[in-house]
Amino acid sequence: MGKYNYERIDNKYLTPPSLIKGGLKLLAQLKGKARLEKFDLDVCCGNNNIPAEEYYIFPEHDGLAEEWREFNWCNPPFDVCDKWVKKAYSEQQKGKTTIMLIPVRTETKYWLDYILYNKDVDIHWLRKGFKFLNAETGEEMGIFKNALAYVVFKGRNVSEEHQDLVEWIKQRLEFVSKEETIEKLLSFVPTETCKEILKTLSHRDFEKGEVLVSI
């Protein structure tokens, strides 16, 4: 058999134990614990091979449509990673933390929009050579040839009173420059509050792909 003989016939594959262990280690670090046994929720799964209190198993539960818990695990179908990354970002704004296991695709729009310029994302790069498990037999599949990473969306809370302002900024940026938008925002709220609100916006929300300006 060839070295790289991984073939994704469908999206029903299982995360190998070594990668689950790594995810739980990151979870423990986030919560300041020596060790943790479970996530609050596996948001995207075909069965319950990930240690979690709750599972969103499709089609009974659609993780893209439902609310997530405080600390989540997400190893999504790799052909629709963009949707799950965007959802993890959305849940991050509500204070939810998600540890994702996804391929390293830094050239893609969703990595640029939601991951690489997000100050509240930690990226833990992994070597190539991992083998996922066949969902039916539990046996190792061929080596997955692409590099993987744990992408950790660390939850941050925006108070309810400011949620409307966040949406207002996003809509305004479609028609008005970033500088004018920030100037208008500063007429509503103090500088420090303005900074906190702007931190919740992704790289994508600012025209011409610019990073947040200093206030």
Task: Give me the oligomer status.
Answer: single chain
Number of discrete helical segments:
6
Kindly state the number of beta strands: 9
Derived from helix and strand composition plus strand pairing, the structural class reads: alpha/beta
Measured between the Cα atoms of the first and last residue, the distance is 58 Å
Shape: elongated
What is the spatial order of strands in the main beta sheet? Answer: 3-2-4-5-9-6
Low-confidence stretches: 1-9, 207-215
Rounded to the nearest angstrom, the radius of gyration is 19 Å
> What is the helical fraction, as a range of percent?
25-40%
Q: Estimate what percentage of residues fall within beta strands.
A: 15-25%
Task: Please describe the biggest sheet, giving its number of strands, its sense, and whether it closes into a barrel.
Answer: 6 strands, mixed
Query: What average pLDDT do the residues reach?
Result: 82
Give helix and strand order, one letter per element, not per position: EHEEEHEHEEEEHHH
Description:
This protein is an alpha/beta fold and 215 residues long. 29% of the residues lie in helices and 21% in strands. The chain has helices at 17-30, 81-92, 109-114, 160-172, 178-186, 191-199, and strands spanning 13-14, 39-45, 52-57, 71-74, 97-103, 121-125, 131-134, 140-143, 148-153. The chain has a six-stranded mixed beta sheet with strand order 3-2-4-5-9-6. The longest helix is centred in the N-terminal third of the chain and has 14 residues, at 17-30. It is elongated and about 60 Å long.
